[in-house]
Design goal:
seven-stranded mixed β-sheet, Rossmann fold, 8 helices, 7 strands
Length: about 220
């Protein structure tokens, strides 16, 4: 079975990527015009400024994440940073093919509502739970061992979110962090590259993926 190539999933992703191409350009232009690094703004300010933007992973990165999740036969997948649900669809397609499910969390309530609709359009809402609010609160309770984590929210929260999830990680769990080529977070790199707990590699795809495997508990 390959859910990723099913008509509903393919049609939904095509529409979302077409919408992103139209919607994101003016939002990004407005941010550039502010002439300030995004990290200078609070999380709430960033959320408000990016309320209409997809800022999603490139399709090829989504396909890679799908392949990694399928290869891992990930049953329980957790995503930090839903946005409008593009990456969630890739993760959920893999979960469908592995007999698993996805828990994803989004700070912005309206984005979460739109994402739920997009996930439903792809025919995947029965295996996806969208949680809203602060991920450090919404991800405190999980149904079982986590086989794959995808981090694609605020970069300064990658380390706290991963530390929150670590006790729930299954042996050999995959942790994939997006945007690690443009907005590096050294404390996060210290954990996945130098602590001895993970084997990690940087993948120069999109804005950079850091792919890590838990090798010690």
């Amino acid at each position: 079975m390959n859910t990723l190539t099913s008509e509903r999933v393919r049609t939904t992703l095509d529409k979302l990527y077409a919408d992103e191409e139209v919607q994101d350009e003016p939002v990004i232009a407005a941010l550039v015009a502010k002439n300030r690094p995004l990290g200078d703004f609070t999380h709430q300010e960033q959320t408000d400024m990016l309320a209409e933007a997809y800022i999603s992973i490139p399709r090829e990165a989504g396909e890679l994440i799908y392949l990694l999740a399928r290869n891992r036969q990930a049953k329980n997948i957790v995503e930090f940073g839903t946005s409008f649900g593009i990456s969630t669809v890739f993760l959920a397609a893999a979960a469908r093919d592995s007999g698993g499910s996805v828990i994803t969390t989004e700070w912005h309530e309206k984005k979460a509502e739109v994402a739920e609709g997009n996930i439903a359009d792809a025919g995947l809402s029965d295996i996806v739970e969208v949680r809203t609010g602060d991920a450090l609160e919404s991800l405190k309770e999980l149904p079982g061992p986590v086989d794959l984590v995808f981090l694609d929210g605020w970069k300064d929260l990658y380390l706290p979110v991963l530390e929150l999830l670590e006790p729930s990680l299954s042996p050999g769990a995959l942790v994939i962090a997006d945007d690690m080529g443009t907005l590096p977070e050294q404390p996060y790199f210290d954990l996945v590259r130098s602590s001895g707990r993970y084997q990690s590699v940087h993948v120069p795809m999109g804005d950079g993926l850091e792919v890590s495997v838990l090798v010690a508990d």
